[in-house]
User: Fold these one by one.
Assistant:
Number 1:
Amino acid sequence: DSLTVLELLMHIKDKIDASLTFRAFCRSAICGSCAMVVGGSSKLACKIKAVDYLEDGVLVIETLKHFEVIKDLVVEQDKGFNKLKKVTPLIPKTPPETEFLISPKEVQSYDKLTDCILCMACYSDCAALDNNPNYLGPFAFSKELRFINDSRDSFDNRIKEAVDGDVFDCIECQACILACPKGLTPQFDIKTICLFLYIDKFPLVINPF
């Protein structure tokens, strides 16, 4: 009863079918490589017990959605990573003579956003991608907000970048929040970005939702 889905898959591979292929590494919900769809929604296989997702004695395990399948439970994740590349990395301002001073309030505004492990679970469950394959994706918008809230960043077109990524196509289903194994709230991050479009300046905003 205590077997995780990943442990079950490893048992099948070791004892029943050596050809079974899946990704896994840390077994500690840190690397994000074992993300897959279990019982209809995306999760980390190392973090959940198999018995909790049995339906009539059957455990349904599928590949992440919105990705091409390579083999069995392994998908080609470049589509998601290429979306992330559309988010401009932090471009530091010219540093002061000594160092940048960052307030605790500012750190609070993006500290949680840095917990993303790029497991692609939120991307897999995103309903907006069903309608618009060009939609940037939940985790990418969370990354955008992380840079928006960083006073050291000199890139001035973050909001335009989010709009170009079709940020308004979010349907607010909150599936990305349910999928995130780290407790991040991409849908709320998206709403926060949208708020910036209705104010003249972009002051520090801690997720208000």
Number 2:
Amino acid sequence: NPCGAVGTGVDGAITDADITAFRYLLIESDSLPLDLQLALYQRMRLPVAAIVHSGGKSVHAWVKLDCPTLDKYKEVSSRILASLKPFGIDQANKNCSRLTRLPGAFRQIGHSDEGLQQLLWLNPNAAALSDDALIRFEETLKFPAIEERPLLAVAKASLERYEHMRANVGKLGI
């Protein structure tokens, strides 16, 4: 999201007050394997403008919002992140001032392989998320298509199984 030349935060840090347009929500997960992150982004039916490998454990998806105000941005981003929480999406990215490295930047801390941030997919013509599209997105996570199980139910069951396994590490059969 575009911001002023100098941040108003401590030591010039960018804050939400410095953002001049509320264009994108950054979504990512450090807990899911990269291939599952990509599969989730492909399936979630949100207007993703870009997908960028972070040079670390995550793939960043830039969801096109184009919100008119900070309050609207907070409302929409909170709804999206709450819907994606059961899938392991990082809930800390609710701030419009959340920054990400651009493709070609090198990640020094927490990098994997060469640590280079890479553009994986670009859709410069992504339409901004409408209120109707947000409702449809939320519903697709709750209700199944004719031939499949509800994605939300599958994710919750998987997380419950994982938590059970973590709680019983070292016990026979786990």
Number 3:
Amino acid sequence: VNADGEGTDLGQRNRFLGLKHQALGTVKMGHYDSYTKLAQGKVDLFNDYFGDMKYTIAGENRLKNVLGYESPKFANTQISVMAQTQDAASNGTSLSVVHDNKDIGLYLALAMDNNVDGKGATITAGDLDVMRLVVSYTVADLTLNALYNTAENEVSKQEETAYLIGAAYKMADVSLKAQYAMAEIDKTVV
């Protein structure tokens, strides 16, 4: 069992059942990443490494007992909505609007979690409200990324403001990457 109380096998992976229809979208239920977490897309250049943004920025949550809907893509845009069921620790919701236009190299996402049982590196774990804006632009071999994130713990009233900027440049089989993330917390309890 790891520090999060989950097993080291399937407990760290998304697990769900779902139905997908080309014209109607996808319905899923199970244990999987919040739509706010998924909205980061490929902006976190060091995902699953020591530089992973989860060590700095709140909102990187995998939720239990959720029911989610992902719309079909229309004009490169997809809307996703998720709700935790009554038997979950909290009755949170997560939603995102993602525009991914690979033809022009533009990725935009706006996402939010409301009352999600979440964790963060600087903010106290618990029922979190998170807002996230993500932008990525690729031209030729250069990718520029930015992420702005706010989080509030509903119980302690702590507020976190965070951002991430990054760049990647592909040279043949090598990619040069640089990324900077920072979070500031207001620990004033009201």
